[in-house]
């Protein structure tokens, strides 16, 4: 099949080309993001391969439909950037990568927790400047602390395993409680109770109408004062302006982000030679108790290999039978892990 691959980085070319060696698809690698303006570049492609910040709203899907595109192969687990109803109406199939490496995201989450708690990023910069003072670097023992996990799919489950090893007490909230987490000793409670009791709150849920701006101005009072908030799921799960207010008022003691609700114009590109136009994001960077990585949690060799193999497998399956192994339908949307 002819496939237009949008938002391509060098590592995408490497891993997708390797996975495609036995499949023989014609991959067209395009650096730019998919949008209404760039959709015409997919002319002649039977499939489009897209990533998390590509636009797959109704206007883009209609443009792709006119160009003959029959499959959208997401190289991600999340699909909040896709208008599924429009895709169904147009007869465009949508496939995703439901699991690539839950360990990658869970381990990155743990890295953010440890770095925030022990101020590793600040200590690193101090030592490089010859400053060995410990003032301002005080952390706390993770042992015995209460950690709340919102979303206990594969990633949340792996994180629970890791945190058990640190001696943490675990609370969780999920519409479908994970039996494996329950066997670990995780207690499932209502979301408000998770907010109220958690010293550390880690978000691992898909972006849905129910989770959009889960952390917002109205829910800030529910949080335990001075808590640590970590989000490696989807940026819009938290309302950024409200989180800034929470930081200023001390409700949020520290914040770790690997995603940002307006990340499309920032992440996955080098902007070091220009100023950041996003004033809200720039404000976040001024806080010494905020640590941000650029949607990096998924970025391991194992995860990239799995993403590429599943994506090529989905394209091959569609080419052979008109369907994909991991197709999403409007009628039956499975619980999605964060990418």
Describe this structure in words.
The protein is α/β, with parallel strands linked by helices and 339 residues long. It has helices at 10-19, 58-67, 84-90, 102-118, 120-128, 154-165, 179-184, 191-197, 240-249, 279-284, 301-321; strands spanning 2-5, 26-29, 47-50, 71-74, 93-95, 146-150, 169-173, 187-188, 200-203, 227-231, 252-257, 290-292. It folds into 2 domains: 2-100 and 301-321, Rossmann fold (3-Layer(aba) Sandwich), CATH 3.40.50; 102-292, NAD(P)-binding Rossmann-like Domain (Rossmann fold). Helices cover 34% and strands 14% of the residues. Strand 6 (146-150), helix 6 (154-165) and strand 7 (169-173) form a beta-alpha-beta unit. Helix 1 (10-19) crosses helix 11 (301-321) and helix 4 (102-118) crosses helix 6 (154-165). The radius of gyration is 21 Å and the shape is globular. Mean pLDDT is 93; it is low at 330-339.
Give a summary of the structure in a few sentences.
The protein has 339 residues and is an alpha/beta fold. It contains 11 helices and 12 strands.
Give the tags:
single chain, 339 residues, 2 domains, 5-stranded parallel beta sheet, Rossmann fold, 11 helices, 7-stranded parallel beta sheet, alpha/beta
